[in-house]
Q: What sequence folds into this?
């Protein structure tokens, strides 16, 4: 088969879709209960659960490199710990 | 980036902000325990995930023309079986085809029917956003009654699409396949369960997944989950599965909400608020009730 006929996944070539954003989700780590509701719905897999200070539960954390600022996470957060703010 | 979630499908794709299909891909492929090969019909999913020189897919992925995702996956699966028979491949591989409603209900129906009849071992996932959204909202046979689209515009002489949607589940079920299900991106646990069952099925299986389109249904980018939930709560999109011909309804809303709640906030239905179009909403509710009654009768529940 001809070499390079297939494209391999290479994240370094990915467009940084975070530049589309005009609003950004802001997670209030104190309010976040670590339920992970927002995580699978994020179209850009931009939300990870990370340890916050010495709290036992991990909290939602947004990767702004890829977050397009759609606001789905803020809409579905059951405790409204995520708010959309202007960039 | 959430590495675990991006295991099969990475960010960096150019789907609209607030699009629903990445969650569908991740939920379905996340349930596969064996390596997966993906075949994808032309559509939003294909054009946004494979922008040269980047691809968001981390699994082997094959793009084909609009109409032949099912035919392509048939060929790939048959080639795998031949190689396995000769002992050239030892590992088990699963085959998944993704297509939009345009590539499944309309253009790819013939290829899908053929592949289902031949009994290839694959899963076909149709993400249904009710139109040709990639090219700017032309109507497909999945577009609901009353929706305004580019090709069925609402105006003085028209209230939008004048025919009801095609019942694809029944068409697929007529092939007598072992497992098919209707799911919704807003109900991910249910979707995952169905994907798992479908992937475990020996032979063809089919998933029809509801996916609200922020751009052409004209609602805020933050609302795809809310609208998806409403579609099921109003029984516009009931969740059910058909296993060996037996219908099971997976989710029964506590109380059925009127269809208006789903229509509200969507630009493609905003013309229905006009007094002369009031009858369309009543007709939509009637269509929905009839479809639901038919489904309930098949599932043998009250």
A:
């Amino acid at each position: 088969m001809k070499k390079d006929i297939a494209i391999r996944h290479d994240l370094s070539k990915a467009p940084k879709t975070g530049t589309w954003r005009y609003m950004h989700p802001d997670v209030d780590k104190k309010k976040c209960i670590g339920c992970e509701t927002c995580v699978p719905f994020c179209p850009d897999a931009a939300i990870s659960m990370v340890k916050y200070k010495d709290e036992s539960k991990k909290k939602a954390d947004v990767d702004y490199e890829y977050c397009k600022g759609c606001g789905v996470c803020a809409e579905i957060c059951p405790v409204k710990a995520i708010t959309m703010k202007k960039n | 980036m959430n590495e675990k979630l991006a295991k099969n499908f990475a960010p960096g794709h150019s789907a609209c902000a607030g699009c629903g299909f990445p969650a569908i891909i991740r939920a379905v492929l996340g349930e596969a325990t064996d390596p997966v090969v993906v075949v994808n019909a032309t559509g939003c999913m294909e054009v946004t995930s494979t922008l040269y020189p980047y691809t968001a897919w981390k699994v082997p992925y094959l793009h084909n023309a609009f109409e032949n995702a099912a035919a392509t996956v048939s060929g790939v699966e048959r080639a795998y079986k031949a190689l396995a028979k000769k002992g050239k491949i030892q590992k088990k591989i699963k085959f998944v085809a993704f297509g939009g409603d345009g590539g499944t209900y309309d253009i790819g129906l013939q290829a899908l029917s053929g592949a289902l009849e031949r009994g290839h071992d694959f899963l076909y996932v149709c993400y249904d956003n009710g139109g040709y959204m990639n090219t700017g909202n032309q109507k497909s046979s999945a577009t609901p009654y009353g929706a305004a689209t580019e090709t069925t515009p609402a105006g003085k002489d028209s209230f939008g699409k004048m025919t009801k949607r095609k019942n694809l589940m029944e068409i697929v079920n007529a092939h007598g396949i072992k497992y098919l299900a209707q799911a919704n991106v807003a109900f991910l646990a249910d979707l995952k369960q169905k994907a798992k069952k479908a992937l475990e099925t020996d032979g063809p299986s089919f998933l029809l997944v509801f996916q609200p389109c922020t751009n052409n249904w004209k609602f805020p980018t933050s609302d795809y989950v809310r609208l998806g939930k409403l579609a099921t709560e109003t029984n516009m999109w009931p969740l059910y599965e058909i296993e060996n011909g037996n219908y099971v309804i997976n989710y029964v809303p506590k109380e059925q909400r009127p269809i208006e709640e789903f229509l509200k906030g969507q630009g493609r239905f905003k013309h229905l608020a006009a007094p002369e179009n009031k009858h369309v909403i009543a007709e939509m509710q009637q269509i929905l009730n009839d479809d639901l009654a038919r489904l309930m009768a098949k599932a043998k529940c009250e």
In short: Chain B has ten helices and eight strands. Chain B touches chain A at residues 1-3, 5-6, 9-15, 17-23, 26-27, 50-58, 188, 214, 220-226 (CB under 8 Å). The beta strands of chain B are 36-40, 61-63, 94-100, 123-128, 179-184, 205-210, 240-243, 246-249.
